[in-house]
Amino acid sequence: MTNFSLTAENGVKSYRKAISAFSLIVLLPFLLSLINITFAESWKIHFFPAAIILAAIVFGATGGIIAGISGSLYSALFLGNPYILVGNALFGLLIAVFYKKSNKTVPSVLLAYLCELPWLILTDYYLVHLPSVFIAKLVVVLLLANILWAVLINISIKQIRKLL
Fold first, then answer.
1. Are 46 and 137 in contact (CB under 8 A)?
2. Distance between CA atoms of residues 72 and 80, nearest Å
3. Does residue 38 sit in helix, strand or coil?
4. What is the pLDDT of residues 57-88, one digit of tens each?
5. What is the CATH number of the domain that holds 96?
6. Burial of 63 (0-12, 13-18, 19+ CB in 10 A)
7. Number of domains in the chain
8. Which residue among 51, 123, 125, 153 sits deepest, i.e. has the most Cβ atoms within 10 Å of its Cβ?
């Protein structure tokens, strides 16, 4: 009887871990993509990058890519900009790659953002035909949001890992 209860307990623990991973990688980025806080003349703080950063750090490249796609799905459909999917998948992948090399959250996020930036600018300007002033504001807002989320995640990553 003891072996069965230990096996069942391990099965429940792995089931909980799978649900936690699925929630963190797929559901959380999607839900956070629905939340934006508008401030100072229609600038918006985006919440979904926090989930992409977290998934990339905790689950590596695959987690970063999936979270990037999931977090961008709503925006891509709503704005008619499918290039957001690729850009944020790239962002998640690069965070994971840089974090694996350095084990430093903030520099990894900033490097990933700098590498993804040409994709964002080129696709938004040439393929989606957004005005350059809008893109410039977006670049600044995303940079500030990425710094904010990277710092907050860096502060709390040890506690988050304990929960997972």
1. no
2. 11
3. strand
4. 998 999 999 999 988 888 888 889 999 999 99
5. 1.10.1760.20
6. buried
7. 1
8. 51
